[in-house]
Write a structure and sequence with these properties.
binds (2R,3S,4R,5S)-2-(hydroxymethyl)piperidine-3,4,5-triol; eight-stranded parallel beta barrel; alpha/beta; 26% strand; 551 residues; 28% helix; six-stranded antiparallel sheet; 15 helices
């Protein structure tokens, strides 16, 4: 279908719909663009030259339309998010092979600026949740251009085959056009990050078994993959041979690794073209597999960036800056394990989607303590009937309120928290169902332990637990013996690690205050009833700067 492919970038950009395209200006240097810093195996997102924490919310899938956006903006305001994650639909953006319509992107950017919010754009291109339902109509009308996977039994699977050169070329052209459009129009860097595709991979099959795929499966595994994986310590990833076809090199894992590699390779090409145009940080989100039970391939979405194939994705798609888990588990061991698995020295942790149950709000702190650059519940708006009213229901507000509480407390000190995360100086305590008391954690010279449960601020140790596991505490080490502490329905206290000579904890000073431009401003000193039993937090969290000593 070469006639459908754009042959040169000059042709592509000449065809861009000129709805709101100001003249190109050389306003971006790569340093001024949003970018990631990396140091000692940790990562930080920099926006406008300063550390940035994505306190996000993601819109529902069909909400990025002007008629639906009022509800989205209303939800963004009520959860106090600083960033909105919102789709860009290929189907809408390229209505004909030679036309691009950026009107929705433009109006999104304009509204985001009016709301003082940044954007993460989600490119719903070839893959959306393992299918390809967002292809432009003119591509859907040419099934030969978008081959679906053929499953092991010969059945057609509703998932795009990664062996689709014409589709990949078209996706590359469209994504490059989007990035070009951002480069020439978004001079304020309202868009800070772009997701390439959405939860790519395939459900209902481990890989494509079409004749084309079979042929590639029995060709040599690319050298770049073999040499990248030769360094892996995980025996499952280690190549069994220095050369050979997929079964020879990867044995029983060949089917899954093959699909992961070729999906990643396809997306890596799309991403590289976009990045060459405008080098914003790019990521791919993943539907997860159970991180604790090592389930069999085929029981989860195959080919996406699941925890077992991150190294394959890194090798196949170097233009992708990070691989991000969509976390819909809600039990603490699984949630925590996912955070650990995706926080790697070669991968900045970012949680672009999480279930919006109130109890998941406690994992905002857990993610930050693991070094995350951001966190976002999915589906913050009410995807109800059109036109949207911009009025949220009480139920929607109530469901999101516990996330809003986090954002309200974190937003004024987001840069400080991002820096503490970058330096590995954050620790989170999250309540586990049925456990009203945390493990003891050593922070410098101190043993810290949280207890959970509702209680008036500061009074008593709240050992009863909350009816639902909502409690959380975030502790940042500011200096030796000085901590930044915030929390929700929880309580924290410290003991000296060295208690051999009878030393006891002394609150030298517990200042309650706010950050203003990165500087802590005390509003009062907590003492007496408010500290005699430790540090208590109710549903209106406070920020404490705590200086400890001994007596
Ligand atoms: C994960 C996907 O990435 C989202 O777009 C959405 O489909 C949710 N699942 C489910 O609502």
């Amino acid at each position: 279908m070469t006639s459908l492919r754009f042959k040169a970038s000059a042709v592509v950009f000449a065809s861009i719909n000129t709805l709101v395209v100001p003249p190109s200006r050389a306003a971006h240097s790569n340093d001024s663009l949003p970018h990631l810093l990396h140091q000692n195996g940790r990562h930080e997102l920099i926006v406008d030259g300063a550390p940035y924490l994505i306190l996000g919310g993601q819109a529902h899938n069909s909400s990025a339309w002007p008629a639906a956006m009022p509800n989205v903006w209303s939800a963004v305001s009520s959860i106090d998010a600083n960033t909105l994650e919102v789709p860009v639909y290929w189907q809408q953006m390229q209505p004909t092979p030679n036309t691009f319509d950026f009107s929705i992107v433009d109006s999104m950017i304009k509204s985001a600026r009016e709301h003082h919010v940044r954007l993460v754009l989600l490119w719903f291109g070839t893959w959306k949740n393992g299918s390809s339902h967002y292809l432009p109509d003119w591509i859907k009308a040419q099934p030969e251009m978008c081959p679906r996977i053929i499953g092991k039994t010969g059945k057609r699977v509703d998932s795009p085959s990664p062996f689709a050169p014409a589709l990949r070329a078209a996706d590359t052209t469209a994504f490059r056009a989007l990035m070009h459009h951002l480069k020439v129009t978004d001079l304020e860097h309202t868009v800070i990050l772009v997701q390439v595709e959405n939860e790519p991979g395939a459900w209902d099959t481990i890989r494509d078994y079409s004749p084309t795929a079979e042929k590639v499966f029995h060709e040599n595994v690319p050298d770049e993959l073999i040499s990248a994986l030769a360094k892996e310590v995980d025996p499952a990833l280690k190549p069994r041979a220095a050369k050979g076809d997929w079964p020879t090199v990867f044995g029983a894992n060949a089917d899954e690794y093959f699909h992961a590699y070729w999906v990643a390779h396809y997306i890596g090409e799309v991403a590289a073209a976009g990045k060459a145009e405008y080098p914003l940080p790019l990521y791919v989100n993943a539907a997860l597999r159970d991180p604790l039970s090592h389930p069999a391939a085929g029981t989860y979405e195959s080919g996406g960036a699941t925890d077992n194939v991150l190294a394959i994705w890194k090798a196949a798609a170097p233009a992708i800056d990070l691989l991000a888990p969509d976390i819909y588990f809600d039990d603490t061991p699984r949630y925590q394990k996912v955070l650990e698995l995706y926080a790697r020295s070669d991968n900045a942790l970012f949680v672009p989607e999480t279930g919006r149950h109130a109890t998941n709000s406690r994992y905002t702190f857990a993610a930050l303590a693991q070094g995350a650059i951001g966190f976002s519940p999915f589906g913050i708006d009410e995807a109800t009937t059109l036109p949207a009213s911009g009025e949220e229901s009480a139920a929607n507000r109530a469901a999101l309120e516990p996330f809003a509480v986090n954002y309200r407390v974190l937003k004024p000190m987001a840069g400080v928290i991002a820096d503490l995360a970058y330096r590995g100086q954050l620790h989170a305590f999250v309540e586990e169902k049925g456990a009203a008391e945390s493990q003891i954690v050593v922070l410098g010279a101190w043993e810290a332990r949280a207890t959970f449960g509702p209680s008036p601020r500061g009074l008593g140790e709240h050992r009863a637990g909350n009816a639902e596991p909502m409690g959380r505490i975030l502790v940042g080490t500011l200096a030796t013996n000085q901590f930044l502490v915030t929390g929700y329905l929880a309580h924290l206290d410290f003991k000296p690690v060295d208690s051999s000579n009878g030393l006891q904890r002394e609150f030298v000073k517990v200042e309650e205050g706010v950050y203003d431009n990165g500087v802590f401003k005390a509003l009062r000193i907590r003492n007496g009833d408010e500290t005699d039993w430790g540090l208590g937090f109710d549903a209106v969290p406070a920020v404490l700067r705590v200086t400890l000593g001994t007596y």
